Amino acid sequence: MVDITAPQASLSADDLRKRITTNLQEKQGVEPEEATVADVYAATAEVVRDYLSVSSLDAKKRMVKGHVKAVGYLSAEFLIGRQLSNALLNAGLTQQFEGAVAELGFKAKDVIATEPEPGLGNGGLGRLAACYVDSLASLGVPAFGYGIQYRYGIFRQEFDDEGKQVEKPDYWLSEGNPWGHEDVVRSQRVSFGGSVVDGDDGARVWKPAWSVRAVPVDYLVPGYDSGRVNTLRLWTAKSYDEFDLATFNRSDYMGAVIPQVNAENITKVLYPEDSTPQGKRLRLEQQYFFVSASIHDAIRTFYPGEKNPDLTTFPDKICFQLNDTHPVIGIPELMRVLMDEHGMDWDAAWNITRKTFNYTCHTLLPEALEVWPAKLIGELLPRHLEIIRSINAQFVQELESKGIDDDVIDRMRIATDGPDGQVRMAYLATVGGSYVNGVAALHSQLLKDVTLKDFSSVYPNKFTNVTNGVTPRRFIKLANPRLSDLITEGLGTDKWLHDLDELEGLVPLADDSSFVERFRKVKEANKQDFAKYASDKFDFSINTNTMFDSMIKRLHEYKRQSLKILAVIAEYAAIKDGSVNVDEILPRSVFFGAKAAPGYAMAKLTIQLINNVARVVNNDPAVKGKLAVYFPWNYNIDLAEHLIPATELDEQISQAGKEASGTGNMKFALNGSLTVGTLDGANVEIRERVGAENFFLFGMQVEDVEKLYADGYDPMEYVHADPRLHHAIDLVASGAFSHGDRDTYAALTSDWLTHDYFMTMADFTAYMDIQKEIEATYRNPDEWTRKAILNVAHSGFFSSDRSIEDYLTRIWHTEPQR
């Protein structure tokens, strides 16, 4: 008998149907028999949200009145995905929903598929934030997620006839938003520009030039089997003076709405292109806008109605986690609020601020650590620049008192002087908070040893590690229901959904021939499902009797999509020139999923190459049935939830020492994919836990990379050493994938041959060699499946619940609220 512990609400299917019917009639204005699937979706979403609101109000009340410190998770991204299925699962309403909509004449999956996906994130950073707010609620931790309600969010990706990426606006709010509750009453004023003057009492007074209204849009975050409903509060910008009637009456219709346009631009698009001064300015406006609103909101929440609150207790009420450098401007903002608005002296304000903030660093690339021109901060936030310079001066004085060398102090300055003066946000976060954490064991070590080495030498106790995690509720239970059911049956319980370590119980079943066969059947059925999904959505015709080999991640040179596509080209060339026996080739379907930043030319050129390799390979009869390449456009959570359960080989091939962690690698392992990868990011921990024999390792390690940099790296040495690589690059340069045009990929091939900073050429041979081991294993289905089961069984550590528990003990020093 299977022990089922999943939450089950007392609300019956018939009661839910009645509530949906009432909403259809009173809110949607239609009778049930006239309703469309979109009507039923909107009605259901509102009913579920109303159902959760009771618990949400109770959670807020207990949070404010209780003695457990809350968490404020500050993030520019929250890639939350579709909400309905997750809310139903966590609230214990899934079965009732299926019954209710069936009585109304609809299929549950069609209603769920109607929901637009919120474009509130770009990739791993935003998905991690979404997993964390889910786990905070599931563990019963009082928390707010704080971010931005982007009107268009990340762009919608399309490909033109030449295979180039085209960015289109994502109108995800065009059909309304039943999940987000706009709470105008709790708006906050956020100001910009102006000047700073001396007040009558000698204090510095900021006189802003203009202000906008930050309006909160609240999303409810129900925990799984916890009874707790937390809040994700996203801010949208509105003008205080939306319309100038006098200007309008002069027939200047556009001029009449300029204040509204300027305000709303702040929250229109995620990561506006920042290669121009205007783009940089808008990004900084976005960052300050949401952290200022969030800090004021937290004060209002925890000191309701108090005109002169005792903010010395603020760090006991809430701590803020800075998810990357985007919210770091919150440090000088809290200092400003405490000193300028609440009359504290510098030392008291600084003591509170350092106790309140903690910083998660998500990169090892120096260029990815945000640096702002001091001039821009001075123009937009003049009081904050003063405070930052004061923090810097105090910090330099501290370093001098410790006897730190002048050249080291210069390297560590938060703010630099001169006409080109800069503010280094990662340094500000490190000095202005209690803890700095990396997101995988290797990443955290390199953060201490390389990226922030000077700071870890001065503040060794500030640095710690919290390895990333993913929620098993969305990425197994919802995304892969067949596997979820098999796991529950195999373990005899579904407790693994809130204690992923329970997956260890699958280890003996890896040697059970019956379970192995059933596991393989699950993967085969998922491949069939994905093929149908891809046919319907992208018009792809996929052969499911092939290995499904996937590389899905943001397009960046260090992630090395170039390595994968060069390997595909080499395989294609070998088939064409007869250097391999086509009958002995293991058939593969290779999937790419990625967006490139609009201003990242080399990444966009790589996308164009992948698409044109796909065009050539997929239309060549010589390789039919043996090799195919697919690049579904606009990669998002919906696509991930279909492709990850169907994938058999996961590509994690970034240059060693460059990937912070990754969470895609965790999702794939938990869904029964095997990994081919370098020792980078969380790959290290995945390999340690699933077993080296169940992970396909290749390539240089961090120390090899550093030595090669030091000795002088010449990519041509590796190109000449491997004829397969030489031939693949020659094909690209010859115009074979650009209709004969030799100039199309000239920038790409030139970089490979002369620069190749992330050493794709150096790792190519090792990558090709590991394919022999991969293919030999795949030809033994029982052995491959056994390894896949062990990947699932040993991946319990990579739950976001475990990550949050680590944050609670290592950084936040708080606990669930019982």
Automatic annotation (TrEMBL):
Provide the catalytic activity annotation: [(1->4)-alpha-D-glucosyl](n) + phosphate = [(1->4)-alpha-D-glucosyl](n-1) + alpha-D-glucose 1-phosphate
Which cofactors? pyridoxal 5'-phosphate
Q: Which GO terms describe its molecular function?
A: glycogen phosphorylase activity; pyridoxal phosphate binding
Query: What are the EC numbers?
Result: 2.4.1.1
Carrying N6-(pyridoxal phosphate)lysine, the residues are 667
The record's InterPro entries line, in alphabetical order, gives: Glycg_phsphrylas, Glyco_trans_35, Pyridoxal_P_attach_site
The answer to whether keyword Transferase applies is yes
An example GO biological process term is: glycogen catabolic process
Q: Provide the Gene Ontology terms for cellular component.
A: cytoplasm
Task: Give the source's domain of life in one word.
Answer: Bacteria
Q: Does the keyword Glycosyltransferase apply?
A: yes
UniProt cross-references to Pfam families, sorted A to Z: Phosphorylase (PF00343)
**Family (UniProt):** Belongs to the glycogen phosphorylase family.
Q: Which PANTHER family match?
A: GLYCOGEN PHOSPHORYLASE (PTHR11468), MALTODEXTRIN PHOSPHORYLASE (PTHR11468:SF25)
Q: What does this protein do?
A: Phosphorylase is an important allosteric enzyme in carbohydrate metabolism. Enzymes from different sources differ in their regulatory mechanisms and in their natural substrates. However, all known phosphorylases share catalytic and structural properties. Allosteric enzyme that catalyzes the rate-limiting step in glycogen catabolism, the phosphorolytic cleavage of glycogen to produce glucose-1-phosphate, and plays a central role in maintaining cellular and organismal glucose homeostasis.
Q: Which NCBIfam families match?
A: P_ylase
**Protein's name in the database:** Alpha-1,4 glucan phosphorylase
Instruction: Identify the species of origin.
Output: Bifidobacterium aquikefiri
